[in-house]
Amino acid sequence: MSKPVKQIHLAAHFPGVNNTTVWSDPASGSHIDFASFVHFAQTAERGKFDFLFLAEGLRLREQGGRIYDLDVVGRPDTFTVLAALAAVTERLGLTGTINSTFNEPYEVARQFASLDHLSDGRAAWNVVTSWDAFTGENFRRGGFLAEDQRYSRAESFLAAAHTLFDSWSGDEIVADKESGQFLTTGSPGQFSYRDEHFDISGRLDVPRSPQGRPVIFQAGDSDHGREFAARAADAIFSRHGTLAEGQAFYADVKGRLDKYGRRPEELLILPAATFVLGDTDAEAADIAHQVRLAQVSPATAIKFLEQLWNRDLSDHDPDGPLPTVDPIVGENTIARGRASVRMHRDPVAVANEWRAKAEAEKLSTRELIIEVTGRQNFIGSPSTVAEQINTLVQADASDGFILVPHVTPAGLDPFVDKVVPLLQERGVFRAEYTGTTLREHLGLAAATERVTP
């Protein structure tokens, strides 16, 4: 029996915390003006995408004691942006990254229930943790949690939020016109949740929303993160987008579902991916090369180098070989901020891997940084990119992709105009929305059918 053809899921990531935006491009616009968010969201909806995705930065990143000048400076509040976008879109899902380390379950559950109501069932929550005290300085709790404690708190946080979301389920509310009162058959919104992290009880003041609960995303890649996703998430924002790595990650995470009584289709794997289009594959490759040169200037290459070496390398020649000295092991004092550095458990080992690669391929420092900091790319003509995406999805390397354009806000337009129609012609991507909620777009069961983790 032949394997059924999978339908591709597509989403759009509005770049905020990133190193992919090409600021020098004349088409590059604001990352904070609401008009940019509107253009981006409406383009994604025109392309029948599942959802728009917002990352989160809770503090401006720093390097060498100065605000990190290679990144977006400023990030509007996630809930504010998504609530506003709910008014200018009709079907597009609205996914926000909200931290479980520095927030409280009642507050977050109330906000997501409100967003789900405002959007008629299109809300999703990307549950993340944070470890660094630098970000934690903005909050009372600070950044003191070890990895296992962060995920323990995240799991408790999500279970508590689910208790709140479910606190209205089963309670029928009837308006009595004679008395002018609302009568209920139960105790709507009443909740109680206690464990090692939380001791809360009260009454949620937002009725059960259209989806019951928002769609839950998870973005961690550690073993704890994968287990958390298998137990409690509806989708994973993954970084494994190539064929071999994607298939390995896909098999590993979906292989964990059975012990939680879940089926493979209940958890979607959606890697992030950039794309560059051209009229021909050769033209696209040339454009992609220029894009990477713009993304990793000589100064940027040195910044990336300092993040691993954990030392001032401002005098290093970006067109020369890698430093001969080893990285300084221990607390990173050069770069500060949750997403400011690529975290490496063994910086010296990584440095040696980079040296071996640079020597074997005869790469300068800048050329090496361009190679090792690139994420999954789709590069080619529209037909080539459509084929690349479909091949990976049908091969179970992913269930779709979250696309990250290098120009904001109009960078998504060429993909929607040129690639989406080809996927629709193949019958692997929707021509029209058939549902109204994000759960329906993603093929997920109603929240009432899920068991609270």
Automatic annotation (TrEMBL):
Binding site for FMN: T97, Y151, S222
Pfam families: Bac_luciferase
Record-linked CDD domains: Nitrilotriacetate_monoxgenase
Residues in coiled coil: none
Source organism, top-level taxon: Bacteria
InterPro entries registered for this protein in UniProt: Diverse_substr_monoxygenases, Luciferase-like_dom, Luciferase-like_sf, NTA_MOA
Domain Luciferase-like, residue spans: 25-395
Keywords per UniProt: Flavoprotein, FMN, Monooxygenase, Oxidoreductase
MF annotations from Gene Ontology: monooxygenase activity; oxidoreductase activity, acting on paired donors, with incorporation or reduction of molecular oxygen
The keyword Chloroplast belongs to this UniProt entry's keyword annotation: no
Keyword Oxidoreductase listed: yes
Protein family per UniProt: Belongs to the NtaA/SnaA/DszA monooxygenase family.
Xref: PANTHER family: ALKANESULFONATE MONOOXYGENASE-RELATED (PTHR30011), C2H2 FINGER DOMAIN TRANSCRIPTION FACTOR (EUROFUNG)-RELATED (PTHR30011:SF16)
NCBIfam families: FMN_nitrolo
The name this protein goes by in its record: F420-dependent methylene-tetrahydromethanopterin reductase
